[in-house]
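User: I'll paste a sequence; please echo it back and then give the predicted structure.

Assistant: Echoing your sequence first, then the prediction.
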Amino acid sequence: MDAASLLTRLAQVIDAHDWAGLPALLHEDFTCRFVHTGEVFDRDQWVRLNADYPGFQRMHAEDLVAEGDRGVLRARVTGTGADGEELEFVVASFATVRDDLLVELTEVWTDVDQEAPAGTRPD
């Protein structure tokens, strides 16, 4: 599969909570790096992280840009916090494909509806 097909399928599998199907999209040498924390996960660790993430509900793909073996997926992720409040995040996933599987993923996560610092917005 090319990057566009793999990233589309990745979002579908995660949204469906198909944790048994997730490893089939990932190369045996797969790594995922979280830019915001510096953590790096191998294939098994990343699948387990997703499967065990508390309160995860949905992942909705919002944008996809890909060419050949490289692609970027922007998605909105929703969940429920420990006290029952709804949580919403946005993730940009930068992917590399090898042997028709995802071999490298770099993810940038952020909260939604953050306030801009004072004085940074035009009047």
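The helical segments are 3-15, 43-52. The mean pLDDT is 94.
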